[in-house]
Amino acid sequence: MSRFNRRRFLARSSMLTALGWSASGWFPALAEQVAAQARERRHCILLWMNGGPSQTDTFDMKPGHANGGEFKEIETSAPGLRFSEHLPGLAKHGQNIAVVRSLSTKEGDHGRGTYLMRTGHQPRGPVPYPAIGSSLSKQLGSPTDSFPNYVSIAPFQAVSPEAFGPGFLGPQFAPLTVASYNRFRAGRQDDADFADLRVDDLQAPKDLDAGAIRARLDLWEALQADFLDSKGRPPAPIAQHTVYQRALQMMNSAASRAFDLSEEDASVRDSYGRGQFGQGCLMARRLVEQGIAFVEVSLGSLGASSWDTHQGNFPTVKTLSGELDKGWSMLMTDLKQRGLLETTTILWMGEFGRTPNINPSAGRDHYPAAWSCVFAGGGIRGGQAFGKTSDDGMTVADGKVDVGDVLATLAQALGVPADTENITPLGRPIKIAEGKPIQGILA
Fold first, then answer.
1. CA 410 from centre of chain
2. Best CA proximity match to 407, nearest among 419, 391, 399
3. pLDDT at residue 41 above 60?
4. Whole-angstrom Cα distance, residue 285 to residue 335?
């Protein structure tokens, strides 16, 4: 093993930054060491579609049927696998993509569906279940990392805040959030500018100089040490202390520059798309390069930017598909070129699907009975569709799976046994996923 481990590299980079060196001056050998260690780790990128995307207009089209709507389907790079005409970039990656067309769940409410799909459990009972990002990052990351193992970019948490949290795992496994401050705004940006993605609460107050900040930190450290010692260092305060320490380490680490997209050429940023989702995908690539275990990027929030297309389904889905296609396809291209796609598993999903039949308002309503999710990248046998729905799309005709099976598949693709258990504060064992992996799409 090289004498330059990741932790030492971050510490040295911090020192160089403090002395006035820029991130562009990283020593090539050290930068390559970080990249090599990132390739050795397993990573997950969750593409979360707020509002519930229409499977019939994206990955399970019904050409020739009245439910099919106005979009056409196109061939992909995988023979027999077809997507919407508005996903041409992803079609070029068909050989690395597996569509699950036979997902059937039981929650058609936004809040309850979000909680179900993100935790694997229905929102009931006394146990606050962790988001899948918290559960998997706990297994994939290292407790000695100075960087958070779970980052959530532009999350729209309003419908179910608990679905985005660490639950009983505690705050040390909560996500670091980026741009949640504008979660109530439209999810797209004016074409004249790149979306502004900043880590929530990372910057120091502008009215404090370095000496004042250092004095405050010294005082905080002294008070914390006295408090923890007086209480016998119990688990809950230790967990909170760990969160604060990690945040401070990150603020003073050159690795925090992974969040600074201005370091990328404008042409690269533009290739991902200028909105929150496209820039979020670029940030996800940069974070994976730093070895971050779990990154999620959200698309959709309120109004015209939501997949919740009860009215005017087709123009909205066309616009959202354009954002999705540009950001996701470029993400896969970049990961592949950098040797990271084989160790990065991507999952695309929302809280439920939408009705195959079109309502009188030219929209599609909530529909959890038969819908789709999509896997790509590492650990996945791409170039195929698993399961199928009936000709009208209303029922699952073959290969029915539920949320537990989807999350178990994700865990196994990442090399984490799905039956891995976490223990609640009351001593109850909870599996990461209560289902069976879909073996047909696993590499």
1. 12
2. 419
3. yes
4. 7
